[in-house]
Amino acid sequence: MSPPNPMTGSMEGSFPNPPLPVSQKTFTIAGILVTVHGLDELSPEAPKVACLWLLHPRLQTQRCMGPLAAATLNDWNQRKEKDNVGLVAVTFDQRNHGSRKVDPLSNEAWRFGNERHAQDMFSIYRPQDQLPSWTQSSPPGTQFLGSQDFPPGLVKAVEKYDPAGMLLGKPDRPLREISERTPSAVEQAKLLPLMKRSFQGKRVLNLSGCADKLVPYKCGQAFIRWLDLAVRPGSWFADGLHLEDLVFDNVGHQMSPDMVTHALRFVGETLQEMIETPAVKSSKI
Fold first, then answer.
1. Which helix (H) or strand (E) holds 276?
2. Exposed end of the chain (fewer CB within 10 Å): N or C?
3. What pLDDT digit, counting tens, does each position of 76-134 carry?
4. Does residue 71 contact residue 21 with C-beta atoms inside 8 Å?
């Protein structure tokens, strides 16, 4: 049986055994309903509190992140280290979702009639191979960037804000070739200030399903490979970023139980590092 590939990131099946519930309190912050999970469970001995932001997938709401919040908080609160660093999780409805929904069509993909899907999502999804701007060029896709489906303004925004666009710029050769090449000394001098500002002291866990058809792992593999080579021991940004890139066989566009296990482990390790390096106060994950 083929692995599931829902049209939105799925949390269904992430928890074969539902986690024990934790407290939830809702606040109105800047006009948005924000739910804070785990306030009542905070240890009164903890001198500081870490906040874990949980952003829900497209076409869902903050409610679907409740089990992940509960599982993460339960995992940390059973440790004695909770008296050193408390943990809460925060969820809210993304723009045009849940309590903030104003136009359902804007959440849909091109195949469902949303001509502004790229602008709305600020990324490229699998349905691009069905668009005229993709199919009516030779080779396919050469006229996609700058077309009505991915207009010039969006191209410039991606170059400015997307990590691959920021660090790799406009590719002058195949991405696979770029990903395997170490930047020159001149290129490193330009990249280091941006790398330090964006990644210094951070920890990144990238979890992907090998069978994901909606957002295939291969679409971002070249950039992840480039970043992985940059932070390996002895490389030019070896001490700046902790990166884990895990790909799970037979997993589609979803968060599998194994992914949950790694996520809980990763959060715990990050909090432990905060205890061991108390001077760090900026975002870690």
1. helix 257-276
2. N
3. 999 999 999 999 999 999 888 899 998 899 888 888 998 888 778 763 333 344 567 76
4. no
Using pLDDT thresholds of 50, 70 and 90, give the confidence band for residue 250: very high
Residue 53: predicted pLDDT: 95
169 is written with which tokens? 């710029």
Neighbour count for residue 33 (Cβ, 10 Å): 15
> φ and ψ at 205, to 5 degrees?
-115, 115
44 exposure class (CB count in 10 Å sphere: 0-12, 13-18, 19+):
exposed
* Structure-token match 């139980």, residue found: 257
User: Using an 8 Å Cβ cutoff, are 274 and 82 in contact?
Assistant: no
User: Alpha-carbon distance 229 to 222, whole Å?
Assistant: 11
b vs e for 60-83, b when ≥16 Cβ sit within 10 Å of the residue's Cβ?
bbbebbbbbbbbbbbbbbeeebbe
DSSP string, 146-173: TSTTS-HHHHHHHHHHSHHHHHH-S-SS
Is the predicted pLDDT of residue 254 greater than 70, yes or no?
A: yes
Q: Look up residue 183 and give its two tokens.
A: 């930047």
Is-cis flag, bond preceding 57, omega within 30? no
Helices 257-276, 66-77: inter-axial angle, 10-degree rounding: 50
Query: What pTM was computed for the model?
Result: 0.82
**DSSP at 254:** B
